[in-house]
Amino acid sequence: MSSSQQGSEKVAPRAGLPGVAPVPKVLRSLQALPTTAPATTLPITQNGTTYDMAQEVRWLDGQHFAVGRWDGSLSIFQFETAQYVGPLINASSSDPSQQGVQMVAVLPGGAIATSNGQSSLALWHASGSDWSVLKLVATAGYDLTLGPASAGVYLRTGATDTLVVGHISGVVSIWRYDQSTLSLKFLSSVNVQNPHPVNPFNDHTIEEVVVADQAAGVVTAGSEDGYVTMLQVPSGTILSQTVFNPDAQRGINAIAIEGDRLLVANCAVGPSDHNFWYYSIDRTNWSITLLDNADLVINTSLPQVFNFDTTWGRNDGKLCWFASTEEGALWMGVPTATALNPIGYLPLTGPLGSALDYREHQLAMVSYDLYQFSTS
């Protein structure tokens, strides 16, 4: 199951019509649902739609976090003051027709790597500790067949700073990051596509890459095609691949790992599906075992409820989790070794979902608006 190939490898093209700008995946999933409602038309032509919903939020340090949006903007906020003073800095980081800023990866030395169009990464550097002076210092190109970067994570493997990037093609690329020269060097790529995707779009987008084991150099990728992939870097060895739910009608939107526990967020279609999954990780062979699932749904009559993002956190000294759903709700739970145990939700924002990230008792939740929470 292992493969480590160069960036020129050919991969299946992403589903979609050439020249047609994609829409947010929540809307695409809704459009794919069967409907008996009559068609509605007006004698006008729609030229386009601009979405400024959040794609990604990542903590930079204990007080600052970056937000990448569908419209191609990258913003940096300071915790607790952001809702009053706005972002410290805004930058343009990606062509909006290529789904905006899907990837934000924090690197050592005050650097950020982001998605940048169809065939490159952007490398940014802040000259001060408050991130208010952020400059684009480099772009790193790669083969066009990999497609836009959709997820990324940094880890240190041995003496090497490594960036692992997921792409919409279902390929992972592995890069060496040099702090002294502020540069990225392509090392290899690995095709982690599921040959039988669970979604009806033939979509293999890698929606999230997280560190599973820093010391062992193991990362986990969650994909729209349903695969949870355990990958060793920098060798590119695939350690395991598992379809999160063989009966799923949609793929993975987000994953989160804490120790040997894995959360998977997805879109539930129909009354018998679930949009939140809980697994244990066996670190001897990197397989996963299902522990529990849940329906994070307020209105049970909806044809689908999209679980947009999830993250681990801590509250009152106990491990907890957060999830944001298409209904504009922030959910929270306190898991046991075998159960998710949702404790409730806050209806906060509009539909489509929100990006989440947690660090040191601080939760950032961003959709169109920005919400900040502190845990005890």
Q: Tell me the domain tally.
A: 2
Helix content class: under 10%
Order of helices and strands: HEEEHEEEEEEEEEEEEEEEEEEEEEEEE
Shape: globular
The major sheet is characterized as: 8 strands, antiparallel
State mean pLDDT (0 to 100 scale). 88
CATH superfamily of the largest domain: YVTN repeat-like/Quinoprotein amine dehydrogenase
CATH fold name of the largest domain: Methylamine Dehydrogenase, Chain H
Topology, please?
Elements: H1 25-31, E1 54-59, E2 64-69, E3 73-78, H2 82-85, E4 89-92, E5 104-107, E6 111-115, E7 120-126, E8 134-141, E9 149-157, E10 160-167, E11 171-178, E12 183-191, E13 206-213, E14 218-223, E15 227-232, E16 237-243, E17 252-258, E18 261-269, E19 276-282, E20 287-294, E21 304-315, E22 318-325, E23 329-333, E24 342-347, E25 355-359, E26 362-366, E27 370-374
Antiparallel strand pairs: 1-2, 2-3, 3-4, 5-6, 6-7, 7-8, 9-10, 10-11, 11-12, 13-14, 14-15, 15-16, 17-18, 18-19, 18-21, 19-20, 21-22, 22-23, 23-24, 25-26, 26-27
What do these coordinates show?
This protein is mostly beta strands. The protein folds into two domains: 53-243, YVTN repeat-like/Quinoprotein amine dehydrogenase (Methylamine Dehydrogenase, Chain H, 7 Propeller); 247-376, YVTN repeat-like/Quinoprotein amine dehydrogenase (Methylamine Dehydrogenase, Chain H), CATH 2.130.10.10. 3% of the residues lie in helices and 49% in strands. A hairpin with a 3-residue loop joins strand 26 and strand 27 (370-374). The chain is globular. The chain starts with 24 loop residues before the first helix and ends with a strand.
